[in-house]
Amino acid sequence: MPKKNNDTLKRVLIVSSGLVFLALMVVPTLGLLKNNNSNSPQGSQPGQEATIPPEKLEEMVKGYEKILEREPDNPTALQGLAQARLQLKDFIGAREPLEKLYQKYPDNLEVMLVLYGTRLQTQDFSGAKSLLEKLVKNYPQEPKFKEELTRLNQAIAAASQQQPPEPKK
Fold this sequence. Notes:
Elements: H1 2-39, H2 54-70, H3 75-87, H4 91-104, H5 109-121, H6 125-138, H7 143-162
Helix pairs in contact: 1-5, 1-7, 2-3, 3-4, 4-5, 5-6, 6-7
């Protein structure tokens, strides 16, 4: 029976992670598209970020890191660094700039959603839960947040039931 619960937990976490991953890619892309359309006469192509080669993304990461050495709280550099690392699937590396952005802008929906996703991807379920609780509180009209919180609570409860007791010495 524990195997079945473990499989259910895995499925819930995989589905949640998949949805979060999509949100991680869509939300920053929408922000970039909005910024690029106002700055560029040509606009930008949808999905443009997905075609950036990893080598170029690594260069971008180094550039943003250099800027942050001089200006540790530069929001543009923090956002760029987080986005580049997310595109490289470096979720752990993306957390630091996202956490700084969240401290600077605690009510920014985009930052909260992306940070929630990275916390899930890095298996910081308690941190993800606290962010999701804040989203439910700040956006009660949005049922998706409440549904996601319910799923996350169920996954956490199932995971805690699955952990075998530690052997006594």
